[in-house]
């Protein structure tokens, strides 16, 4: 765990400094960011102990000034650095970055780029169906980045989770495809992009029955045995699928006991062998074939499973927002959304998420035992 001074919750400010929240018993920080909105972050620990956080920021999602930005928590430091742009193409809205540490030491940032909305051609919903997936490479731990490279040219391609390296050496990169129709993204489908030559070439595998099931988190439970946990466009539940052949074929996604509000989730396998997932603990619908977009995205909750994702008996809120609950006033909370989670080399769990209607990113750090109550 990071070692930081003890503070009360009300003392937290957007200075990037790490604080210890006495009431909750976790480390937290609001990252310094001068952009109007911030959203969809990812975390990556480097071999030297530095911790990186990337997200997209600008005036508003879908606008031409939205770019990928990055903040760094240097090893041994007590504060995140101010966010800086690492991509900037004003013809596109660049979104949903994820970091990948290549075995050769390169650091990749994968992200989407969609046609930016304009005043003369406002979209009825969004322009995600124009998106393609790009990559930038850093060879100095993220201090400088190469030129943008088009990786997945199929229009409508979107990404959110990291490239995973399986025990077989295969790489798997979950994407989903958005279409130009009137379903408000309800027709999105999941595809698994697979590489057996360390990213030189890729082939796509469509997950059957995945319409409306996206943002899949791929986890290898045993050699060749994979599970996937999905966001649901129906705002009903998190969904589960599995593969027994290194991702070549998949079962149709089925509901888990965990709720979902049609917002992003993040899941990992812990060093203990258990699974951890971070998500918004909310659902708004019981019909799996319709699309629902609730405003409510609070609280942020971490859950732990001991049986490969079948049940999730341990759950704890890391963010309760303004504290409102109940059908009539839940909407009074601001949004705390799109969380990501990772386990550091020292065993501690780090998470981050869009804070307070996308004002900035919030970083929190805790342990597995903090979630289960064993600490």
Automatic annotation (TrEMBL):
<dbReference type="GO" id="GO:0016798">
    <property type="term" value="F:hydrolase activity, acting on glycosyl bonds"/>
</dbReference>
<dbReference type="InterPro" id="IPR036278">
    <property type="entry name" value="Sialidase_sf"/>
</dbReference>
<feature type="domain" description="Sialidase">
    <location>
        <begin position="49"/>
        <end position="350"/>
    </location>
</feature>
<dbReference type="Pfam" id="PF13088">
    <property type="entry name" value="BNR_2"/>
</dbReference>
<dbReference type="InterPro" id="IPR011040">
    <property type="entry name" value="Sialidase"/>
</dbReference>
<keyword id="KW-0378">Hydrolase</keyword>
<keyword id="KW-0326">Glycosidase</keyword>
<protein>
    <submittedName>
        <fullName>Sialidase family protein</fullName>
        <ecNumber>3.2.1.-</ecNumber>
    </submittedName>
</protein>
